[in-house]
Design brief:
The chain is globular, with a radius of gyration of 20 Å. The chain has 307 residues and is an alpha/beta fold. The strands form 3 sheets. The chain has a 5-stranded parallel sheet with strand order 5-4-3-6-7, with helices on both faces. Strands 1-2 form a two-stranded antiparallel ribbon. The N and C termini lie far apart (54 Å). α1 packs across α9, α2 packs across α9 and α7 crosses α11. It has 2 domains: 243 residues, HUPs (Rossmann fold, 3-Layer(aba) Sandwich); 27 residues, no CATH class. The mean pLDDT is 90. It is built from 12 helices and 9 strands. It binds zinc ion (ZN) (2 copies). One zinc ion binds next to α12.
Length: 307
């Protein structure tokens, strides 16, 4: 890639320059570097225990596919049982190709794979939910269904931890957005990095890729032959996140290491802050039994409205 630039560790040709680490790396050293950081993050937060049944949220995008591969290799030294879980939101043209990649990748690694679709569980695909609705509503509808279904699926499968492919960019964007919206309590509640049990109705989530920048996950996928599908959801409407993403990339360019420092500040603050009080005592939805803070959960309310 960078002709004439050599690995800081072995003098082979470099495939990447990492400004924040002040080094250039060849394919071998870069891949080892990514794998090491993934493992170190798992250890640092004691995310996983030997023998656990771990669900992997597998959308078929690059982040979750890389996560699948890294979890698979980790499971050779730390015995884990893995199950990949794909949520099919029912979005024509966008979802079917990634569902196919998800199935293929799981099969390639011999990992059990389960697909759950909005249509079969709730009776509505995202395409049918969105008929005649403003685009802005899409992500919140989709998010309500996806969270509900993932949690429900994990419990049905007996999954003890759910690993999701959020990378350093996702996490640092979320931290900044919470500050920009003056939502400090929400920020402190934004844990989920370490798989802490917040309520027995929720399957704890872990984010083992949170210390890996998005561009490095992309490069890792390319170098390892993991398929990447560049495709944007047709309903994507995340104005603020897009702006924050662009600004963060610009800052990272000017001040290398910015994204890491934002994440680390957040982790430090979280350590010394008083744990935020739970929003309200959790109840369980009268219709579906999932945790909620009202009588009927957001998901069941949404289905009712659609019916
Ligand atoms: Zn090297
Ligand atoms: Zn419900």
């Amino acid at each position: 890639m960078d002709g004439g630039i050599f690995c800081s560790f072995c003098k082979s040709e470099a495939v990447v320059t990492l400004a924040y680490a002040n080094s250039c790396m060849c394919k071998k050293h870069f891949c080892e570097y990514v794998e090491k950081r993934f493992r170190r993050t798992v250890r640092e937060f004691s995310m996983l225990k030997k023998g656990e049944l771990v669900g992997i949220g597998l959308s078929g995008g690059k982040d979750s596919s890389v996560l699948l591969h890294l979890m698979h290799s980790l499971s050779k030294s730390l015995p884990l049982r893995l199950v990949a879980i794909t949520i099919d939101e029912g979005i024509k043209g966008y979802r079917p190709p990634t569902v196919k990649i998800a199935r293929q990748e799981a099969k390639k690694l011999g990992i059990m794979h389960k697909t759950y679709s909005f249509a079969s569980v709730y009776g509505y695909s995202m395409d049918s939910v969105m008929k005649g609705k403003p685009q802005e509503a899409a992500c919140s509808y989709c998010g309500v269904f996806r969270r509900h279904l993932l949690n429900k699926a994990c419990k049905e499968l007996g999954v003890q931890k759910l690993a999701i492919g959020h990378n350093l960019d996702d996490v640092s964007q979320t931290v900044l957005m919470n500050i920009m919206r003056n939502e400090p309590m929400r920020l402190l509640r934004f844990g989920g990095v370490a798989g802490i049990i917040e309520d027995e109705g929720f399957v704890p989530r872990i984010k083992p890729l949170m210390r890996i920048p998005e561009r490095e996950i992309g490069l890792y996928a390319i170098l390892k032959g993991i398929p990447i599908k560049f495709q944007e959801c047709p309903y994507a409407y995340t104005a603020m996140r897009q702006t924050v993403r662009a600004q963060l990339n610009e800052m990272e360019e000017k001040y290398p290491g910015t994204k890491f420092r934002i994440l680390n500040s957040f982790l430090e603050i979280k350590k010394i802050a008083k744990p935020p009080p739970p929003k309200e005592r959790l109840k369980y939805c009268e219709k579906c039994g999932e945790p909620t803070n009202s009588k009927i959960c957001a998901c069941c309310k949404l289905v009712e409205k659609l019916d």
